[in-house]
Amino acid sequence: MPEGTLILRGRVAAVLGDNIDTDIIYPGRYLNITDRALTAGHLFELAYPEIRAHLQPGEIIVAGANFGCGSSREQAAAALKFAGAGAVVAGSFARIFYRNAINLGLPAVVAPEAAGLCRAGDEIEIDLASGSVRNLTRGSTVAAAALDPRAIELIEAGGLIPFLKRKYAA
Q1: Are 43 and 83 in contact (CB under 8 A)?
Q2: pLDDT of 51-61, one tens digit each?
């Protein structure tokens, strides 16, 4: 994401239900893979392999409540990021998944009504700073939680590690 960008636009790759746990996002049997870029090859492998097969860079995953519940594995958020997901919009997130996503530079946007607003293939616009999800295809908008300015800084930098490298290189 270019620096200063607070608005994301993308196509909805899939709309998922509630309680999508980390084993559904990234199966535990692949935890021995240490190259984060390779984690993308196993995204949604067990439950939604069609998402992985068709996910295009910048596309957005929309889900119901409690996305990323289960284990605290960072690989679930990493698999989404390295598969090219532009953001995840969900009714709510498991706390550790949310933090992992932001630390990796993957926008995680809380919008309780988004799953009811979106369908796969819709074009949406997310305002990270003011908090809204606008469905450009259907002409409707729902409220979202605005991201903290510090979270936006991490996302703009590409994640916590690139942020810290840039900060301390000066």
Answers
A1: yes
A2: 989 999 999 99
Chosen CATH of 7-169 out of 3.30.565.10, 3.20.19.10, 3.40.50.80, 3.40.50.2000: 3.20.19.10
3-state secondary structure of 103: helix
Element containing residue 114 per DSSP (H, E): helix 114-117
The C-alpha torsion from 40 through 45 and 48 to 50, rounded to 10°, is 70
What crossing angle do the helices spanning 149-157 and 160-169 adopt, rounded to 10°?
Answer: 90
Closest CA to 126 of 150, 110, 103, 149: 110
For helices 75-82 and 95-103, what crossing angle results, to 10°? 50
Where are the domains positioned within the chain?
Answer: 7-169
**126-138 confidence digits (pLDDT tens):** 999 999 999 999 9
Query: In residues, how long is the chain?
Result: 170
Residue 163, CA distances (Å) to 65, 85, 97, 102 in order: 29, 20, 19, 12
Cβ–Cβ < 8 Å for 44, 67: no
